[in-house]
Write a structure and sequence with these properties.
174 residues; 9 strands; 21% strand; alpha/beta
Length: 174
C-alpha cells in the first residue's frame, strides 16, 4: 500500500464494533456530515500506555465534540476483548476490531508480527493518528514505531484548532 499523503482520501472500511454492529466509515461520515474524524490506532487492550491514552481521549471527548470532531479507535483484537476495555474504562467512542490487520495495513500503520504469547499479544499495530475532514481527505497523520511519544489529547485538540484556522485563512484568500 502506498504511503498516505496529506490531501489523499483515506480508505473506506468496515469493522465490527464492541456493540456487535458493523462500523462503515462512509456511513459514519454521512451521519456526521459537518465533522472531521480522528481515527486512532492503538496496540491493544493489553497495553497500559494505550489504555491511559484512550482514557485521556475519553476525558477530552466533549472538547473534540465541541470542535466538531468524532473519535474512533482501532486495534488488532477481537471485539469481545475490546468490549471488556470499553466497559472497564467507560469509553463511549467507537472501538473497532481489526483482528486481521487489514485496515491497519491499509493505513500504513507500523506493525509487529509475532506469535501470540501467554498475555494474548499476537500481531498488532503501533499507535497512529489520522485526522480527516468531512470529505475523507487526510489533514494530519502521526505514526509511531513504539508505544511512547504519541500525541496526547491536548496536543490533538491544538492540532485540530490550528488546522481549522489554516483552512479558514486559506478559504478567505481565494
Amino acid at each position: 500500500m502506498p504511503e498516505l499523503r496529506l490531501g489523499d482520501l483515506v480508505p473506506n472500511f468496515i469493522l465490527p464494533t464492541v456493540t456487535g454492529e458493523q462500523f462503515l466509515l462512509e456511513d459514519h461520515q454521512q451521519s456526521h456530515r459537518n465533522c472531521w474524524h480522528l481515527i486512532i490506532f492503538f496496540r491493544g487492550s493489553w497495553s497500559p500506555a494505550c489504555v491511559r491514552a484512550l482514557s485521556q481521549l475519553e476525558d477530552h471527548l466533549e472538547k473534540f465534540t465541541n470542535e466538531h470532531v468524532t473519535v474512533m479507535a482501532i486495534a488488532a483484537e477481537k471485539a469481545s476483548e475490546l468490549k471488556h476495555l470499553a466497559d472497564k474504562e467507560n469509553l463511549t467512542f467507537p472501538l473497532l476490531a481489526d483482528e486481521f490487520l487489514s485496515i491497519i495495513d491499509a493505513f500504513g500503520v507500523f506493525t509487529h508480527h509475532q506469535i501470540a504469547s501467554e498475555e494474548g499479544m499476537g500481531s498488532f499495530g503501533e499507535p497512529a493518528f489520522f485526522l480527516i475532514n468531512h470529505d475523507g481527505e487526510l489533514l494530519y497523520q502521526q505514526k509511531q514505531t513504539g508505544p511512547f511519544g504519541r500525541a496526547c489529547a491536548g496536543d490533538l485538540l491544538e492540532t485540530v484548532r490550528h488546522l481549522k484556522i489554516q483552512q479558514q485563512t486559506k478559504g478567505s484568500a481565494s
